[in-house]
Amino acid sequence: SDGLEATVVVKNPCNFPIEFYSLDFDEQHLEEKKILRMAVGSEYQKRFFMPPRAVGGTLPPEVLEDHEAQKRRKSQQAEAKAGAEAEAEAKAMGKAMGKAAPASRTVTFYPESMVKVTRNPVSRAVLRHLGTDPSSQQRRGIVVIVHGAPRAGKTEIAAGLCQYYDAASVSIDTVVKEAMAND
Predict the structure, then answer these.
(1) Global model pTM greater than 0.85
(2) Domain residues for 25?
(3) Residue 148 and residue 152: Cα distance in Å, rounded?
């Protein structure tokens, strides 16, 4: 089609900055979407929680560091594969010429793969935002209250939060009934 042109006027009635963008044309958004898809994996299509970020901010450092580590691993694996293919080709060429190939072997060391990570980078970013140290025995926590109109999906949202954070769920009705029963 010939397209359509329109003028858009944006006014900010607030005393704090706002940010708006078009997802179809925002290169940063498209790159961050790829990074998140790699970081979260199969959970990407489902809802997941991330710490808030400032206007114009980037993804949490945990997610960016994990992405860089994955890129390094992939490039090291590609280099190792190329080296093995070149070695095999040289060996085959040496056999064709009647020469024995020198006995050499490339060993690639991946330090990142030896580190056991118990949570994905998004979870680590949320824990950092909440001020929770996963290695300490004494953890601080938060209380989330899900409130809303009847049949708005509060129970489903609370169950999802509990499952995601491996947390306990407490119903106000249950607490009030137990309090009344125990005076």
Answers:
(1) no
(2) 17-84+117-132
(3) 6
